[in-house]
Amino acid sequence: MGISVRAFGTLAADAPLSEMDIPRRSPGQDDVHIEITYCGVCHSDIHTARNEWLNSTYPVVPGHEIIGRVVEVGRNVKRFKKGDLVGVGCMVDSCLKCDPCRHHLEMFCQNGCTWTYNSPDPHTGGRTYGGYSTHIVVREKFVLKVPETIDESAAAPLLCAGITTWSPLRHWKVGKGQRVGIIGMGGLGHMGIKFARALGAHVVMISRSPEKARDAEDLGAHEVLLSTDTKAMRAQANSFDFILNTIPVGHEMDPYISLLRIDATMVLVGAVEPLKPFHGGGIIMGRKRVAGSLIGGIKETQEMLDFCGKHNIVCDVELIRIQEINEAYDRVVNSDVKYRFVIDMRSLKE
Q1: Any idea what the CATH number is for the domain that residue 324 is in?
Q2: Is 343 helix (H, G, I), strand (E, B) or coil?
Q3: Three-class SS state of 186
C-alpha cells in the first residue's frame, strides 16, 4: 500500500504548475519518511516542467533541494530517527554496486542513478516526484544530515547549487595561496564565492555587470574583474590557478582561458549546451585544461553540509509560498532573484 500526498506539479509543458495529489510508496525497512518543510527552486526545475530538455514525462513534480523532518524510519535505518533535520538532493537511488557508486560517485552510476524527479522509479515502476510536495520517502543511503545550527530554509539550495560548486572546488583542491576566479554571480556563482573564500583562496568575481561589484564583495570576493574591460582582462592574463565557470548558456571561452596560469583548470558547471568554438592554441600554449563537473556524491554532499555547519554558510534566498511558483519561474528566467528562491512548503497545507 502506498500513500497519497499533496503536491504542486504540471501536466504539460505549456501548463502552469498547480495543486495535485501524487502517490508515494509506503516506507520500507531501509527507507526514511520525511515531512518536507522547504524546497529550493532550481533552473533545472523549469527546464523539466517546460520540457526544454525534451525528456519530460508528465505529470512532473519538480524539486531536488529538499529540507524536512523525519516522521518515521524503517527497521534497518541506523543513521536517522524521528524529528531529525534532513535533506534530499538531486538523487534518491543508484545501484551502489558499480565502480562509480563504490567510489562515492553515485551521480555517475553506470546503471543510471535515480534522479529525485522525472526519473524511472525502481521501487514503484512509475516515475519519481520531487520536493514540491508535503512528504517524500527516500532510501536511507540518499538522505543527508543537515546541521541544526544553520537556517534550514536557506540551507535548501545547498543540496544542488551548493554541491555543484563545492564539488569542483574540492576535487581540484582549491585552498590557501590560490587565486580563484568565479564567472557569473547567480545561484551557483554566489555559492562559489562563499565556498572559495571559506577555503582560504583569493577570490575574484568575474562578471559583465559592474553593478554586481558591491554584492560580490559583500559575499566575500576580494576583487571584481569586468570581463567587458579588455584592458583589465589583459592585465590579469595568466594569473588564475582555478576558474569556476557558472555561465548557464553557450558563450565565448577564449577570454576566460587566457586568464589561466600554466597547468591551471577552468571547470564548467553551468552551460549544459553547446559552447562557441574556442582556439586550441589557448589551452595548448600553457598546458591549460577545460573540464566539467556535475553535482557530488552523497559522501561529498554530507562533507559540504558539515562544512557549512562549521562555517555558517547558507545560500542567499527569497522565501515564497508554493502558490507563487509560476511567477517565481518567470523571475528566474529573467534573472530577477538574489540568488535562489525557496518554497515554504507549509503553504501547501493552507
Answers
A1: 3.90.180.10
A2: strand
A3: coil
**pTM for the whole structure:** 0.96
Do residues 92 and 77 touch, judged by C-beta distance below 8 A?
A: no
132 and 37 in a single domain? The answer is yes
- The DSSP line for 286-308 is TT-EEEE-----HHHHHHHHHHH
99 near 106, Cβ under 8 Å? no
Same domain, 7 and 156: yes
Choose among 36, 58, 31, 33: nearest CA to 123.
31
Do 10 and 128 share a domain, yes or no?
yes
**Would you say 99 and 79 are in contact if contact means Cβ atoms under 8 Å apart?**
no
- Tell me the residue type at 335: S
Question: Collapsing DSSP states into helix, strand and coil, what is residue 283?
Answer: helix
Assess whether 10 and 36 both reside in one domain: yes
Report d(CA 113, CA 29) in Å as an integer: 21
Closest CA relative to residue 35, chosen from 63, 8, 72, 69? 69
User: How many distinct structural domains can be found in the chain?
Assistant: 2
> Is there a single domain that holds both residue 235 and residue 300?
no
- At which of 292, 324, 339 does a domain end? 292
Full residue range of the structural domain in which residue 214 is found: 164-292
Each residue's pLDDT, cut to its tens digit, for the chain (350 residues) gives 689 999 999 999 999 999 999 999 999 999 999 999 999 999 999 999 999 999 999 999 999 999 999 999 999 999 999 999 999 999 999 999 999 999 999 999 999 999 999 999 999 999 999 999 999 999 999 999 999 999 999 999 999 999 999 999 999 999 999 999 999 999 999 999 999 999 999 999 999 989 888 999 999 999 999 999 999 999 999 999 999 999 999 999 999 999 999 999 999 999 989 999 999 999 999 999 999 999 999 999 999 999 999 999 999 999 999 999 999 999 999 999 999 999 999 999 87
Q: Same domain, yes or no, for 150 and 170?
A: no
DSSP 3-state helix, strand, coil percentages of the chain (rounded to 5)?
30, 30, 45
Which DSSP helix (H) or strand (E) runs through 165?
helix 161-171
Q: Answer whether 250's CB lies under 8 Å from 275's CB.
A: yes
